[in-house]
Structures are given as C-alpha cells and as structure tokens.
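quick one: NAP bound model?
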Amino acid sequence: MSIATINPASGKTEIIIEPHDSAEVEQRIAEAAAAAKLLRSTSFAQRAEWMRAAADFMEDQAEGLGELITIEMGKPIAQSVAEVLKSVKAMRFYADHSEEFLADVPLADPPLVNASKAWTRYEPLGVVLAVMPWNYPLWQVIRFAAPALMAGNTGLLKHASNVPQAALFLDTLFERAGFPRGSFRTLLIPGSAVGAVIADERVTAVTLTGSEPAGRSVAAIAGDHVKKAVLELGGSDPFIVLPSADVASAAATAVRARINNNGQSCIAGKRFIVHTDVYDEFAREFTRQMSALVVGNPLLPETEVGPLATQAGRQDIIDLVEDARERGATILTGGTVPDLPGWYYAPTVIADLPDDARLVQEEAFGPVASLYRASDTEDALRIANQTSFGLSSSVWTEDLEEEAYFVSRLDAGAVFINGMTVSYQELPFGGIRRSGFGRELAAVGQREFCNLKTVWKA
Ligand code: NAP
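yep, here:
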C-alpha cells in the first residue's frame, strides 16, 4: 500500500507521500532515544506546560484539522471536529493529572517486610513505538501520546498509510509546543518495516491499535525481543436489550452506536441481541431509523453516514453481507452500494442469521448491524459471548438483578448499562480474548508504559 491520501468520498488521490528511507528512520530513532534521556529528568510541571501548549495549538486549528480528517478518511465533519476537541481535552487531562497518577505509593505496612520505609515509583520505559489505525487518526494517537509523554517517555508513530497528513501534523505538534527534539516523531514506513523498529535495542515497548493479524505480528516480534506490548484490536460488541428497558431509547441509541464514524469503530455495538418479548418493537424502530439516515458527502453538515475509509474496507463489508444473504439471512434494510462516487455502503440491518454466516463470528467494520432474537436472558448471554472477541458491551435493563447477572458474566473489557460504549479519558479502555490485552486511558493506561519500581529501605 502506498502512503497516500485518497479521498474516500470521491476515490481521488489527493497526495502521495514518499516513505522515509532507512537513514531517516535511523535518525528519528536516535533522536527519540536521546530525547528520552532528557525528558525523564524534566518535571511534571514542565511537561504539563508543553502539553497544554500543544493542546492550545490543536484547539486553534480544530476546524481545519476536522476537514483534513474528513478528506483523509470520510468521517462526517461534525464528528471530525469533535475528535479534535476530544483529543485536546485528553491532553489537558493528562497535563492536569499525571503527577497524581504517577506519584510514589507508600507500601502499607513496612515492618512486615523488615523495612523502615517501602514504596513504589512509576518511571518511564523510554522510547515507545505506537502503530496506529486510521479510524480516529488524531484521537487514537493522542490517547497514547499524551499519557506517554507526560510520564517522561518518548514516542515514535507508525500511522496507517491512508492518513499521512494526520501523521505529518502529529510529527511536529509536540516539538512546536516546546518538547525536546525527538520527543514524538512520525515514521513514514509500511507495516512490513515495523518489525525492524520493534527489534531496535533503543525501542523499549510497542502499542498497536488495529486488526488482529497486525496485532499478532507485532506481539510476536515484541515477544521475541522480550519487550512490553499493548494490543487494542477489533471487537464485535453485543448490545443487549431486555424487556424492562426503555426500548425506544435503546433503539435510538443503537442507531448512533452502529453508525458513528460510518460504522468503523472498534467499540461500536455490532450485534443487537434482543429479548423475544420486545424484539419486534425494537426491530421495527431500529430498522426504520437506520433506513432514514442521510448518506452522502461527509463535508456537508447534514450528512449522518459518509463513505467507508478504503475501497478494500468496503469490499470486506460487501463480502460479509453477501455471505449472509446467500445463507438465507433476512436483509431488513440496506445491503446495497449507493449510486455515488467513492466508497459508500447503505446502512444495513440483517436478521435471522444462520450460525454458519460469517457475520456471526466476524467483525463488521462498516454500517452493518446484525439482529438476534434471544429466547430469554440466558440465551442473550450465550449469544453475546459466542464470538472470540471481548472488547466492550452494552446492556439495557431496569432490573438490578438482571444488570448484576450480565455485569459479572459478559466476557468483555467493559459493560455499559443503559447507554452505548464511549471512550472517556477517565475510564480504562481495552479488551480481553482476541480483542487484545493491556489498557489505555485513565491512570492504568498511563502506567502501562512505566516501570513500577519497588523501593525498600532498612
Ligand atoms: P490494520 O490493518 O491492522 O492497521 C492498523 C495499523 O497497523 C496501521 O498503521 C497499519 O499500517 C499497521 N499494520 C498493518 N499490518 C501490520 C503488520 N503486519 N505489522 C505491523 N503493522 C501493521 O487495521 P485496520 O484494518 O486499518 O483497522 C481496523 C481494525 O482496527 C478493526 O479491527 C478495529 O476494530 C481495530 N481498532 C481497534 C481499536 C481499539 O481500541 N481496540 C480502535 C480502532 C480500531 P498500514 O496502514 O501501513 O498497513
């Protein structure tokens, strides 16, 4: 894949960018390693000042950056601007809270370990490589970079090849704000060149957000070199609606959960599992609202669903839907390619999926919802846990016993009750099983790239 901006709303190539050669990559790794030595000896207050300056710089350009995101990957413009502002908020959050998150922790009872004093300390690991996806081209990177830099680490970014302009904006953002040269740089390299960077002895850890094959490859190389890895991979999150729920509210939220970011979000509700007592009511309302969505140019403010980010991504969605259709599933709405230039796909709802349909097990990374009728709560749980993913989940119920039942039995990194899953800087984020390991965001996410040093004093 070449490194290029190809506008998904038109299919037109806007910019092709030359990858970095090996000398450039070497220089950037060397600068990141040198900056890591400097940054770890700066104070939290100093780093916070730089981080706030970077946040101000981004906020000032929110409109232009929003447009850039939309042109590179097709997200409706209001969502692109919101992504910039969410990133700004996270930068300020880590500027405000890192000192507290990474403060020394006294150990409860030093005499028990024959010490006069014992405590733990969080120290930076050094240079961390971040391999990032295109679906939130700024937010995904910032939610790694802000906590990592505030902890005193430096970062190298290998961004997705279809968002090079976002990658180049991030390349200079932190230096412009005052961080030492090399604190955070972009490597314009293909996925095939990532292994050599992980293997480099100056690189201490790696985080990847993306697909399972990429995660498997990165984790294998990191394992081979005994380096810390965090993986945020795919998901096929269940959205469970039970009879005591506010079904109208659940249906309206289900639409937003499924089509946000043109359906290309790892934590989107993808499988809608509805108790038989309210299934018909939910299916009717959900399908009505999905079929009424405004599909079109993502730069227009009225657009609710833009194109998929890549032609290959749209082909994956077409293949999944056609597989379901051939196996006898019912297409309640959509299942078609709109007559538009670019890579659009109609918002789609599919019911009556046979067990062997690919959609039952695979992630639909686009505006395609699967509907399941559950005969009772146990059946709803069985369907929810039947994929090998485990990112997040959503449960709609007003019954506290039912709520407790699902909270303790869902195989997922998070459960959202009577709401859709959203990433918040204050909440830990991450999955289990084939959705990956490790956490991002909050304090635990920041500590992933720290050495927890135990100190014991006689
Ligand atoms: P992808 O192909 O895995 O790409 C993600 C990143 O990995 C890109 O920078 C890509 O570079 C790189 N890459 C690809 N193959 C690689 C390899 N073998 N070694 C090293 N790097 C490699 O992912 P995608 O299909 O674009 O993104 C969608 C997936 O990401 C979905 O499954 C989605 O659920 C998941 N996702 C998860 C989260 C989360 O937080 N859990 C968030 C967003 C997305 P190139 O572009 O150069 O190939």
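The first strand starts at residue 4 and ends at 7.
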